[in-house]
Task: inverse folding
């Protein structure tokens, strides 16, 4: 078997990796693993009011469940959290953390 009409022959692994990447599953799994690291780093109280939405281009995006928590995290904890996460995420570039209000959790 040579080349097919769509291009060079690919391995099954290449095809699966391509599908997972295009489907967004890899991004979702990445956010899930980052959520675990986030929760371990910030502790139970902050983790209960936040969730990771993405890590792209070195920017970690976090949703917060209320304006008071948003203000507290931005004003008093952003730099220390960034330093702690950089330490835990060695090998990954983390330039900044952004926070925004989101709707989630039990209300």
Result:
């Amino acid at each position: 078997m040579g080349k097919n009409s769509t291009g060079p022959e690919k391995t099954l692994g290449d095809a699966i990796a391509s599908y997972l990447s295009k489907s967004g599953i890899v991004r979702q799994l990445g956010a899930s693993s980052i959520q675990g690291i986030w929760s371990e780093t910030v502790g139970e109280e902050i983790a209960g009011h936040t969730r990771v939405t993405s890590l792209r281009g070195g920017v970690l995006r976090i949703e917060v469940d209320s304006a008071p928590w948003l203000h507290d995290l931005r004003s008093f904890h952003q730099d220390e959290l960034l330093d702690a996460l950089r330490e835990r995420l060695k090998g990954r570039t983390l330039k900044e953390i952004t926070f925004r209000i989101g709707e989630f959790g039990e209300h």
Notes: The chain has a mean pLDDT of 81. The CA atoms of residues 63 and 102 lie 5 Å apart. The domain at 12-101 is CATH 3.30.300.180 (GMP Synthetase; Chain A, domain 3). The two ends are 58 Å apart (CA to CA).
